[in-house]
Fold:
Amino acid sequence: LFKLILQICVILVTARVVGMLFKKIRQPQVVGEMVAGILLGPSLLGWVAPQLSSALVPASSLGYLGALSQVGLVLFMFLVGGTSRARPCSGVDQSREQNMRAYLAATTR
Structure:
């Protein structure tokens, strides 16, 4: 459990620091956070310092870390969906009917 919490802290701190650096150079913070993921992953850290990489993220904890990342992704998508607004379209009734037909065609085969 301590190792998992340490991994999460290292990931969050690295993502935040690299995200802030990207923000300072007027780039989107989220791009910096993605770069932080590449820096910590096997693409760079695993290649440059494989011992450090395997000590920080041993193979035995990849399952737990992967499961937590999936939960985080689901929560993120839920938050994004909750804050977006759908524009009303013209012909809403037609769209609903077409969507329902497509759904029924896809699920009944």
User: Anything to note?
Assistant: The chain has a mean pLDDT of 82. The first helix runs from residue 2 to 24. The two ends are 46 Å apart (CA to CA). The CA atoms of residues 7 and 57 lie 7 Å apart.
